[in-house]
């Protein structure tokens, strides 16, 4: 197939890029070229800002595609731009939405593609919902061949998934663990969560490309493994070879006391603090044989080994570290004062 990926070098899309290239597809990437060294041989790269529509049209020329995959569309205006650019140029337009668009908390903790979309806590998620609605309208009224994909917490070797971290990523949480310090965990750590290795996600995603059962439909792609946050953090500590010292704080308190730009209201109250179990039966019907095979304890061990071997990924976040210490001290003081 001839496939165009808008993005193609991020956490989710990099695995898809590698697998499509290895399978011999005619793969094109449209992005700003900031990770050119990570693009596999044989992939055609268009280096441009997609918001410069005329330049993109000039670079695309007369090319048409079997599938166009949008990984960096966050606003309805960006999706509307894509419809303008690719209407009549592709047999399938695949939009990466988000499982955070599902209502939190949902009426049923088992989430399917039919679960209501609504998130009063997170503007990011509401924008994803608006993008989906725009695309569905284009499909229903004009036949624009859409497929919507809703990933949840997908990770790769460049970052360890944790629930509470600062704007510079998870390294400071790992460093606190290695220093023997307490690590903040939202709630009591017992809510269930799903994390998915990006290579597993990629296999499900690729199975939807060129798939007639995918047109006009939405799919979620996740592992079937559900873990509590306590189990997730314990796996991280095991991979580091250290003891896990959790310190439990209510998600509402974390959201109220963190800097606004960290957006714990959205990330925690609108997503990670709520128990969810994803049912991927619809995907498995459309992509027979799909199964996520990477257990989290295996995947996070790869992450830790990779990050420890790459100092450039060990990004210090002293502001987050100091905030953690203040939160712990404040809660302990509150306990003593009662």
Automatic annotation (TrEMBL):
Residues 3-220 form the NAD-dependent epimerase/dehydratase domain. InterPro entries: Epimerase_deHydtase, NAD(P)-bd_dom_sf. Gene3D superfamilies: NAD(P)-binding Rossmann-like Domain. PANTHER family: DTDP-D-GLUCOSE 4,6-DEHYDRATASE-RELATED. Belongs to the NAD(P)-dependent epimerase/dehydratase family. This is Nucleoside-diphosphate-sugar epimerase. It comes from Xylanibacter ruminicola.
